[in-house]
Amino acid sequence: MSGLTFWAIDQQREAARQREIAIKSQKTTEDARASEVEQRKKAEKEKEIAVRAQAIAVEEQAKAEKENYYATIALAQVKARDGQYQKAEKLLWSTPPELRNWEWGRIMHLCHLDLLTLKEHEANIDSASCSPDGRLLTTASWDTTAKIWDAVTGDVLHTIKGHSFYVVSSKFSPDGRKLLTASYDRTAKIWDIETGKELITFKGHDGHIKSASFSPNGKLVVTCSTNKTANIWDAISGEKVLTFKGHDGHVESASFSQDGRQVITASLDKTVKIWNAKTGTVVTTLDDHTSGVYAASFSPNGKKILTASSDKTAKIWNAQSGIVMFTLKGHTARVNSASFSADGKLVATASLDKTAKVWNARSGKQLLTLYGHSSAVDSVSFSPDGKRVATGSWDNTVKIWDAKSGKKLRILKGHTSSLSTASFSPDNKMVLTGSFDKTAKIWNAETGKALVTLKGHKSGVESASFSPDGKKVITGSWDKTAKIWDTANGKELNTLKGHSSFVNSSTFSPDGIKAVTGSSDRTAKVWNLASGKELLTIKAHVNYLNSSSFSPDGLTILTSSGDNTAKIWNAETGRLKRILKGHKFGPLGYTYKNGQMVIGRSSGLQSASFSPNGRKVVTSSWDNTAKIWDTYTGTELISLEGHTSGPNSASVGCANFSPDGLRVITGGSDSTVKIWDVDTGKELISLGGHRRYLTSAAFSPDGLKIITCSNHTEAKIFEAIEWSMAKEQFLAKKKKDYAEWVINYSKN
Q1: Are residues 418 and 524 in the same domain?
Q2: CA distance 390 to 58
Q3: Number of domains in the chain
Q4: What are the residue ranges of helices labelled H in 628-689?
Q5: Which residue in 613, 507, 521 sits closest to 562, CA to CA?
Q6: Three-state SS for 742?
Q7: Which of 350, 446, 532, 547 could be cross-linked to 380 through a Cys-Cys bond (beta carbons 3.0 to 4.6 Å apart)?
Q8: Are residues 96 and 186 in the same domain?
Q9: Whole-angstrom Cα distance, residue 620 to residue 684?
Q10: Strands across the sheet with 251-256, in order?
């Protein structure tokens, strides 16, 4: 074999070896690439797992935060209900702002039923009273100081320092230029209002001084003490003029009559004594209280006497005869203080039960209870114009209240039969109610006064609602008709006739051009409001219809029925789009048949309404539940269960979404209103106040108020405080609102 041949063979071998190397290299590259791909996939999978885990962690954290929020709200509600308002408020401010909603605002509202709270003292407040012109307020505290406040802005103008022990009384002179204080350091002092300078000190009691007051002309001062005496002093020289002796216990209060001729004292010996201010002799002794008396004063005209006692009562007496005219019962603990308004028509009392009360002095009837202090209320007094009440408490605060309303629950009274429906106008300024007294009424939502009564139906009004612009009202009646009314003057504009049975529901379309009505004749009808002509009849259910309404976009109609279903329909064609089915039949009890309440197995839906964005529906039923549904799939999302059986039935009579769609409000036969979290179905707060089963409950368009009515003649408005504000913003707004309130009321 030639050399050339060997060379060729070597070349072939080398080429084969190179190919093998290339193949191996290629395989190595491919393996590396595959490994890289595998690593990338693995990394992506690990990243996906991490992202999923992070999402789960975030979801779990959000869930935990919500659960913590629910628990905090529940605890705050308990604290507020127990009168521990400061603790409740502290809990509320500790919650995440993004989770707060109506329930937060409602509890905060209950913590701030006053017009303004003053928080500068560091210990119990025993006295709070206004200057003669109402521009200033003075307080006395166990922190050994008295303070002078601007009664309009709530700002501290002076802090009076000079006493060495508790300051228990602080009052202005009749001309408003001086301040008189009394202290447990056994002294009383007069101060200059402008400078805060001490002018004179009264010394002579050998026990704690409990109160000090000027005579009507400002020339004398009367003090009383735990040494069982009272003294009259010269307000200029500081010399003791007279000592009253005769009580067998601590003398808790002492003050002059309006003519300055008499002094009245209250003692723990259970008596009140009236003394001749010149001679010091006892004129009359009042001894009808069964325990120690802590306060006593004459009415402005001197004809009555007001006393407060640890027997839990206050009494109004005839000053001339000494006969008890009224015993004011209502407090559950010692009554510490009591005072007349400047016109003598009202009385205010303060108690260890943490409340103050306002009473009619002519009838003895209780008018208001002022809730808001977290500890004993030790002092109460009216402003000179009688429009405000100031209370001082052992919770270290002074609160100023509206003497007329006290920010109490607003109740709309005027109907003479059961209410069927209640709702707000689009601008939040009015309320519309419908009643079985055959009328509907339009009310001022702020004052609770009836503005217009809509008369024309021949039978009970079952439904009523405002048009989107608030200028019209539609009502549905058991007289088989619906009517359109002018909101401003109550004039009937049109009558929609066509149903063969009760019209149970009536609402406007979102554009206000159409209306839909639902009837016990099992149909829903769509009407043209301009002509009053029927546009469409939907043969909707196999039982009576309880509700019918347009979706927010106006494209569909939602109906609910006694056949236990809710249905969604095309608003133009009447074609059925969805059936919401899942409620159960109710228990054996009272139910409706042919418009009459009879014994039977209750069944059927009571109401159905869309969420603000139209994506969800909430229904309420005789099975004592409300349910939230997905509008597009008809799937049941959540069942709201928490109402208990009422005395004659078990049902949730109404359910509606809040304007932001995050909450649902329900009213039940158990006479309660409940607020629920839409996402979780968690019950957040329960409101009482009604005596019968709820027929209607709805939010105001701004979401801050709730209007409810029951099978009774009254509607109730529940208020909440805006929950989006920071604490500093909230307190500043409260202060501003109070100043505006004072200015507005001073004009009236």
Answers
A1: yes
A2: 49
A3: 3
A4: none
A5: 521
A6: helix
A7: 350
A8: no
A9: 18
A10: 251-256, 262-267, 272-276, 282-286
